[in-house]
Amino acid sequence: xxxxxxxxxxxxxxxxxxxxxxxxxxxxxxxxxxxxxxxxxxxxxxxxxxxxxxxxxxxxxx
Length: 62
Prior knowledge:
The model has no long low-confidence stretch (mean pLDDT 87). This protein is of the alpha+beta class. Strands 1-2 form a two-stranded antiparallel sheet. Strands 3-4 form a two-stranded antiparallel ribbon. It has one helix spanning 51-61; strands at residues 12-20, 23-32, 36-40, 46-50. It has one domain (12-61).
């Protein structure tokens, strides 16, 4: 499963709602995945991390 190895962010189910004649019709369920990239953590090990964690690592490292 696609998850961030730092913050454990995973996929979520999301759907769209179409308004038809005054009522909402929930349709088109789809799975949304986090934006995972290969990056090196502080110890130099390669990990799959979301972009938010990569930004946080770069900010803390400087």
